[in-house]
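Memo to structure team: turn this sequence into structure tokens by end of day. - J.P.
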Amino acid sequence: MEFRQLEALKLIIDTGSFSAAAKQMGVTQPSVSSQISALEREFGCRLLTRQPGRAIPTETGRALYRYAEEILALRDKAIATYGSHREMSGTITIAASSIPYQFVLPVLTAQFSLQYPDARFHLAGGDSTSAAALVLAEKADLGMVGTLPPSPKLLCEPIMEDELMVLAPAQPPYTQWQQQPVPVEDILAAPFVAREEGSGTWAEVEHYLTHQGYEGGALRVVTRMDNPDAIIKAVEQGLGITMLSSLAASEYMRGGRVLALPLAGGPVKRKLYLIRRKDKTLSAITEAFARFAARRTNRA
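Reply from structure team:
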């Protein structure tokens, strides 16, 4: 039994619905549902009766609600009494793939430090595969990745959505592509600047091509780079086109330095995940950051 599971139960009963509880917690509705399912497995019975648009507590659910109120009140009292001391300081180690490492975590860590000035961070950059490996090896407390890791040992919470965009040099012939969504055949015919294999971005590019009836090998890859800024600068100089995160491209798009082109078949969206080991108890400061990150990113 965990605090966040009791928080989910209490808020569902208070608000009457999973969606309202998820909104107050700053997480997704599936995340709240998984917390309740875990509680129900632990107690071996239903705690809530699901009905269209609302949730009603069972007799056991009402009894546990009263205990949850007491437990959470005691937790809050302990944090208020001791949270500003040793327990709310220390180093938080986070492994991240390149997009959250460069464009999400710098903002989150700065904002968190305003509330917890004794927090220290160690950030390890890489791709989604290597970030998940560091969390599994307990060399990082948390991870932030763009691809859902396959390991059953990890708890993976979707915390924000990102969109892949086709980026091209702001010069002919690519300026003509702005008139209509770019067919996949035009993307395959153009020189392509790709992310490294193992990155979440490259996995999503391959996923998109598969849905269009092609493979990643069909692209005319002229070079691979593991740094999003380097890729966009190469595109800006005319080396080729790319598909990259809107988080990475926003600054270049605002300045008109590259073209953001509509993609045939609609937008390609993906989720960014906050990951942790299921069996690892996090320090108070790390747990506080995990809750903070989920609230801030889901609000964005």
